[in-house]
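re: the backbone from monday

yeah here it is again, tokenized this time
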């Protein structure tokens, strides 16, 4: 059994997605659990509604760094109320994205810090997005005392991996693992402790080989899991068991 530790099934990041069909196809591929991710307040409401309608779906709710310009005390108050729901297993997707800079960096950091504190109050782990900001992401996590969560769609190097693991975070590998130029990521994936790794799609983005270039689906997580098992010299069934157990240990839930 596999779990997709990070996918987008609602909101602007998943326009045109028909969640029921996607999840049915995923289950046919042996994927039984899904962490659906909210990227802003409206999307977080939609994700929470989805958890009530779709068995096997649990939530991660937050404000993505791209949307950080919309952060406010009102957004924080409402999001905190949503995060309290038992089906919400993570706070985020939050973090820093200095590649696109769709929100000013100072506003990204402010929203990031606020969500780290929210996660601490809620007693829930974080779902971290980081791109082109490795040192800054680790600095904020350290300064805020963050100690549990997922570095989602891991795409950094060994130094960052060590820093994140030292803080207590898990590393979640996506379809990037199967791309030809992802040698540094494969090095980390082969090396990382077995009890600290997860697999995800980040659907509808980053479809793995052999579906690269197509919209990604949660069912495609099996190709990432297969690649990860091969890198580690493991039986794919053992890899699936380990990643599902890791998610349960991290957030208290497995399908």
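seq for it, each position gets an aa:
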């Amino acid at each position: 059994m596999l779990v997709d530790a990070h996918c987008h099934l609602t909101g602007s990041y998943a326009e045109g997605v028909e969640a029921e069909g996607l999840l049915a196809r995923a289950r046919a591929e042996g994927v039984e659990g899904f962490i659906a991710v909210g990227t802003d307040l409206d999307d977080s409401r939609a994700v929470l509604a989805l958890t009530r309608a779709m068995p096997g779906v649990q939530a991660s709710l937050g404000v993505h760094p791209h949307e950080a310009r919309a952060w406010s005390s009102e957004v924080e108050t409402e999001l905190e109320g949503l995060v309290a729901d038992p089906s919400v297993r993570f706070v985020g997707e939050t973090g820093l994205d200095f590649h696109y800079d769709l929100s000013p960096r100072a506003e990204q950091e402010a929203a990031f810090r606020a969500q780290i504190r929210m996660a601490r109050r809620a007693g829930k782990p974080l779902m971290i997005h980081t791109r082109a900001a490795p040192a800054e992401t680790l600095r904020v996590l350290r300064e805020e005392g963050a100690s549990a969560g997922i570095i989602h769609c891991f795409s950094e190097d060994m130094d960052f991996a060590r820093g994140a693991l030292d803080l207590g975070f898990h590393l979640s590998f996506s379809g990037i693992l199967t791309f030809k130029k992802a040698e540094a990521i494969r090095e980390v994936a082969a090396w990382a402790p077995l009890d600290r790794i997860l697999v995800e799609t980040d659907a509808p983005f980053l479809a793995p080989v052999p579906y690269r270039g197509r919209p990604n689906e949660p069912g495609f997580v099996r190709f990432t899991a297969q690649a990860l098992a091969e890198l580690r010299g493991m039986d794919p069934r053992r890899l699936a068991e380990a990643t599902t157990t890791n998610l349960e240990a991290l957030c208290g839930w497995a399908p």
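The CA atoms of residues 204 and 216 lie 4 Å apart. Residues 2-251 form a domain with the TIM Barrel fold (CATH 3.20.20.140).
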